[in-house]
Amino acid sequence: MNEKSQAQSRIPGEPGIWAFVTGDLLVFSLFFILIAIGNQEQGGVFSSARGTLDLRFGLANTLLLLTGSFFVAIGVERFRLDDGRDNRIWFRLAILSGVIFLINKVFEWNAKVSDGMTPMTNDFFMYYFVFTAIHAIHVFVGVVILSFLFKKSQAPFTPETQRGLESGAIFWHLVDLLWIMLFALFYLV
Amino acid sequence: MTWAWFLLVAVTILAWWLAEGEQKMADATTTAILLTAGVKIWVIGYQFMELKLAPAFLRYGFLLWLIAISCILVFLIS
Amino acid sequence: MSEITSNILAQDSLSRKSLAFCGYTGYAAIILFIIGGVWLGGMLPPLLNASDTPSEVVAKVNENLLNMRVGSIFMIASFALFGTFGAGIAAQTRRFETSPVFSYVQLVFTAGGTTIALLVAFAWSLMVFRPDTYAPSILLMWADFAYFLAVFSVPLFGGWCVLIALPIFFSEPGREPFPRWVAYVNLWAALLFAPGQMVIFFKDGPFSWHGIVAMYLPFIAFFAWIAIMSWVMIKIANDENS
Fold first, then answer.
1. N or C: which end of chain A has fewer CB within 10 A?
2. What's the whole-number mean pLDDT along residues A131-135?
3. Which domains are present in chain A?
């Protein structure tokens, strides 16, 4: 942090991406609060429903997203070094983590549905299916964005490409960040 | 960057361990789990999203949001 | 605003006025909806609930008959203005496109969105037309129809937003039809409309058509989006530093 604080402060990515991040954080805050209120009002339903979730899926997906974020962060940093090295591997790995996350999610949903749990079962599963689905759409969009970054990361260094790359990365980190709270609220608490 | 990742994984494992070993002090565990989530979000924002480089209004805006939402959730859940 | 935008607009006072006109019609649409949909019509916050029984719906409608009728008139006026609002955005995009693909698709979505929105007001007005002659369940169906038109039509309204964002992202730096942050706001709006499709699964709770996530969120996002886009259009029109 010390060496960084000497550099003058600047907005990472395009300023516009932060409008999107702010908006998305506020919407998901509403989702988190809805889950918490449900948990408060129907504690018994929520804790027994929570018990049926497979923690291994959640844990694996959390680690996948965290690691994916890490890869993207390295990729962006390597791009800024601009030493001509091929840094596409980091974006490729991050895309892979996102795809595995989605496959994992499909298996997890599938297992729940075949056990007879649907969004109509109770409020816990209603929130669980809808919010993880909205989050999965984010992951899907993130993977699409990452595949653009993958191409962009080989473009010659310009301030515009750097901003573009950072903006895409910020979205990917946002997807990660939102999952962290969903994971805590659905699986752990 | 690497220490951020190690920290994130370590905190995740800690939260998982807390959740597995529940039952006894449910309220304290719940609060601890939510706090670990808050810490992870802060690390992601500060390190990965590079808010550490950002102007104060963004950095503190993010921190303020994080503190607010964590407090609300802890209040509602525990 | 980029130099090119202001240059084109500086030479063309007509396009400046027409763009501002379209922007102001966006504001007018919001005000008319607040009068017709929020104050009188009982659309937002919802007077009716997706969990209401048909007889509850009949009772509520009969209690508020005159307000809802007058509200329907204001609502249909509001929704018709989506056309001018959307055409203004498409025209601004058109100025920067050599091959006006996105502007044309925007117009298609504007026309579709305006039509769907007008049908919302039609459904609302038919609901209050003769509530005692229709069977109670038909009244409930009109309410379902109105909210489904409004929030279940995600691909149309969300797609409209995406089609505004894409030409901004694709244009060369300095030649954007709108500032780049506008593109992000549009994507965010599209995202907020998305939970509207949940109304098909639920008749109660936050994802039903009277719920906070599936109804309030898309409605508020939609009108906030109109407010932001109108403001940007008017700002571009007024930027006279040639």
1. N
2. 94
3. 53-188 (1.20.120.80)
